[in-house]
Amino acid sequence: MAENGTDCDQRRIRMSKEQHNGNFTDSSMLSERKRREREERLNIVLWKKPLVTLQYFCLETLINLKEWTIKLWRRRGLLVCVLLALAVLTALYYVQGAHQQYVRYMEKKFFWCAYWVGLGILSSVGLGTGLHTFLLYLGPHIASVTLAAYECNSVNFPEPPYPDQIICPEEETTEGSISLWAIISKVRLEACMWGAGTAIGELPPYFMARAARLSGAEPDDEEYQEFEEMLEHAETAQDFASRAKLAVQNLVQKVGFFGILACASIPNPLFDLAGITCGHFLVPFWTFFGATLIGKAVIKMHIQKLFVIITFSKHIVEQMVALIGAIPSIGPSLQKPFQEYLEAQRIKLHHKSDSAVPQGENWLSWIFEKLVIVMVCYFILSIINSMAQSYAKRLQQKMYSEEKTK
């Protein structure tokens, strides 16, 4: 009976929204209009409508700057405190004294941590796509430290941020003395900072859903609309994707902190849904963010670190290169560049700091560099397209509101 009463209330709410200003809009016509508008927005991309896309991107940027300026002005007291703190730190940075050694140390640590936190935020926010910074930056960094540790039999190379090249220490070390735990400890700071950045990047869906629920207004985000439609048709969902989303939603809603922790601790492409669920059901901020931070920056990061370190340990890499050579016909030709690359890395690790770095470029490193450039360019293009589509959505909503007031 209670469920039937809730369904009736939801129908009344929907009907009251449709009858606003005396105009009754057929739901099928409304959904068809939304579908057409969404298709129109998706066509606003640089490779189809470059001039319109760039114009909308610039206008959306100006609107966002205006909104941020208004928000900063409303919090001008906090802004003044931040500016005063920055002024004090600037004075400490430039005034000479015995404190300069601590200032330089903190400066190096701060920028190193900020670098990885920023990459983590880019990975999970992405404005529609996300830059895969683990594959492009953190994974290769852990792999290079792992290869260096096994080659040098030590992790006593300089603390992060490293020089252009990691150089083996000059002291003699015992063969096979390096341990898995030593490598994990060496890359723990940057890995945890990256994981913390990914946790911060999960906050926008949470705040969006929470604000929509508290305000009682119609949600403006398509993912949130999809979430509400999923809740309405929960019992009739048949396809695997819908059932997986419902499983995540039920786990987070019923288990709470530990459900969020479980979703955040494993590679989970549906975690945005967990943030929307927590915001919709008004889960406390620190419950959501605390579980997300622990899951992503501690548990998940150690799992990923272990995977990369084990994959790039010396004996496994040598076995992989040997297996490549065993491929019929093309094996030896494929094996050669890998062997040359590994040999070049060993030479770089053992060159003295005052000697010239060995020159020469391997096609594997060349391909990776070009891949990074392509991924970053695509990420920038996705930001431009996403912001242009956001402005198009503003125009469509403005047109719809004007039609309702006529």
Automatic annotation (TrEMBL):
TM region(s), chain numbering: 77-95, 115-138, 251-267, 273-294, 306-327, 363-384
Keyword annotations of the record: Membrane, Transmembrane, Transmembrane helix
The UniProt record lists the keyword Protease: no
Protein name per the record: VMP1 protein
Keyword set includes GTP-binding: no
Highest rank taxon of the organism: Eukaryota
Source species of the chain: Regulus satrapa
